[in-house]
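Recall the central idea of this unit: under ordinary conditions, the amino acid sequence of a chain determines the structure it adopts. In this exercise we apply that idea directly, starting from the sequence alone.
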Amino acid sequence: MPSYAPQRCQSPAGSGPQENPLLHKITSRKKPFPRRSDGKDVQHNEWYIGEYSRQAVEEALMKENKDGTFLVRDCSAKSRAEPYVLVVFYGNKVYNVKIRFLERNQQFALGTGLRGDEKFDSVEAIIEHYKYFPIILIDGKDKTGTHREQCYLTQALPVNRHFSPR
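Accordingly, the structure predicted from this sequence is:
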């Protein structure tokens, strides 16, 4: 009897048996923003929720109440430069971290770019990285910028438990 391994999150590039041939055609061209393959790949991840308000996502994460739980949502002021937000629950707080798209080198980065500027080839690569290396979370209400937390991304928020399908 054949065994079936889970296909989700094995490779951040998303190249597995579930690959869509149409996406392959798109990725073979020069990478326009936001790389169409990344946009499509992001939408197929369990941690991507799309166009939900900051408040709705924060409330759902607070209900789940598990450190390291996260989602990626569309940025409310979605632009080429800031297409997504990584939303993380840690220490009874919800942190919203912008995901920036760097046009010049066709890569993604977290936050404002003022502190550290690690670059990633995809949003999936960001998520995979912070499952194994702690993400630094800065409280936006702390004007001194000294209150920082660190946590690993541990699990995607179970979307079907908190949101009705659109």
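Confidence is low (pLDDT under 50) at residues 1-40.
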